[in-house]
Amino acid sequence: MAPANATDSPLGLFLRLFWMLGGGAMLVIAAAYPLSHTETPVLLTLTVCCLISISMIAARFVDIRACDGQTVDGDPADLGHWKRYAMIVLPVSVLLPVGVWAIKTMIA
């Protein structure tokens, strides 16, 4: 049996699944929520999306620093990967709910 390391830990697995899959799914659901609920304020949706994206970025950081984080390809990740990830996730978390709001106002 191979020795356990930080890459094999349950925390590392959870963090990796969250920043790769779960966080993105939560972000899309939170951004699309106002399409079916007309009374949802745009600021609330934007705030929820930003909180989700901040938690995704924090999970990626902890994955890299404490759990021997890897890229999607399985290569070792460094803070350069984390910075690039943050620079993609933050604008998307703002533009996604704004885009949904624009679509909602055009159909209404």
Structural class of the secondary elements?
mainly alpha
- Round the Cα radius of gyration to an integer and report it: 16 Å
Unreliable spans are none
Order of helices and strands: HHH
What summary fits the major beta sheet? none
Q: How many individual β-strands?
A: 0
Question: Can you give the helix content as a percent range?
Answer: over 70%
Tally of distinct domains:
1
Q: Which word captures the global form?
A: elongated
**Averaged pLDDT, please?**
89
Cα end-to-end separation: 60 Å
Number of helices: 3
| Percent of sequence in beta strands | under 5%
Characterization of the model:
- This protein has 108 residues and is mainly alpha-helical.
- The protein has one domain (7-107).
- The protein is built from three helices and no strands.
- The chain is elongated, with a radius of gyration of 16 Å.
- The model has no long low-confidence stretch (mean pLDDT 89).
What topology does this entry show?
Blueprint: H1 10-36, H2 42-66, H3 79-107
Q: Which terms would index this structure?
A:
108 residues; mainly alpha
Task: Describe the structure concisely for a colleague.
With 108 residues, the chain is an all-alpha fold. It is built from three helices and no strands.
